[in-house]
Amino acid sequence: MLGASSSGTLNEEILFGRYDYSWQGETLEVFVLDGQRSPIGQCGDRRCHVLSQSSKKEVAEALMISATVWSEKIHNEIWVYDHRWWSKDKKLWRGFRRQAEQT
Q1: Rounded to an integer, what distance in angstroms lies between the CA atom of residue 32 and that of residue 46?
Q2: Class of residue 29 by CB neighbours under 10 A (exposed 0-12, middle 13-18, buried 19+)
Q3: What is the DSSP string of 59-98?
Q4: 41 vs 68, more confident
Q5: How far apart, in whole angstroms, are the C-alpha atoms of residue 67 and residue 46?
Q6: CA separation, residue 81 to residues 69, 85, 87, 88 (Å)
Q7: Mean of pLDDT over the chain
Q8: Type and span of the H or E element at 30
Q9: Around Cβ 63, how many Cβ atoms within 10 Å?
Q10: Interval 84-98: pLDDT, tens
Q11: Which of 8, 20, 41, 80 has most Cβ atoms within 10 angstroms of its Cβ?
């Protein structure tokens, strides 16, 4: 436990979240679930689930297709392979950009 004179920071991370997400004029329920993390800090699975009424099935499928197409593209990021996982890293990309601008 931190004493009264100790200082520290808190970090907010969503491990389970539910959102009302508007897409193409319809509202869908989106759940974000973060999987188990190992003791050494390796990432688990991050999954998003979209719930919709059967009448909104086409809208939900359009959202998933659009999100997949968007996530396959690079958006000011660089792919990094670390601990058997590929992930996009915006912070590393920004560091490379700053370095390139200084030279």
Answers
A1: 7
A2: middle
A3: HHHHHHHHHHHHHHS-SS-EEEEETTEEEEEHHHHHHHHH
A4: 68
A5: 14
A6: 21, 6, 7, 9
A7: 82
A8: strand 26-34
A9: 21
A10: 888 889 999 999 999
A11: 80
Q: Residue ranges per domain, the chain?
A: 13-72, 74-103
Contact 42, 83 (CB under 8 A): yes
Nearby residues of 42 by Cβ (< 8 Å), 6 or more positions away: 83, 84, 85
- SS3 state at 20: strand
Sheet containing 46-51: order of strands = 16-23, 26-34, 46-51
Copy the structure tokens of residue 71. Answer: 């996530």
CA distance 89 to 40: 19
Q: For 9-42, give the DSSP string.
A: ------SEEEEEEEETTEEEEEEEEE----TT--
